[in-house]
Backbone:
């Protein structure tokens, strides 16, 4: 399992992000405050507060490919 923080600041960013994470078999979650949603669900993502960075959790030990593909959305 690996966690990072991401920022999805536009509708296009959300669409592109979901297209990337849907390619992977593992479970991927996004959380903001007390809300937790499936990162592969566009509707779920839009239920979060996207004005602030959100926490991404990948439930897999083999997840480096995901982080390489979404590096444009990762914030430090």
Residues:
């Amino acid at each position: 399992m690996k966690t990072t923080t991401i920022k999805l600041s536009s509708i296009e960013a959300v669409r592109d992000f979901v297209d990337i994470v849907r390619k992977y078999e593992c479970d991927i979650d996004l959380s903001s405050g007390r809300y937790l949603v499936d990162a592969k669900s566009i509707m779920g993502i839009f239920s979060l507060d996207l004005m602030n960075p959100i926490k991404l959790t990948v439930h897999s030990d083999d997840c480096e490919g995901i982080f390489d593909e979404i590096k444009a959305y990762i914030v430090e």
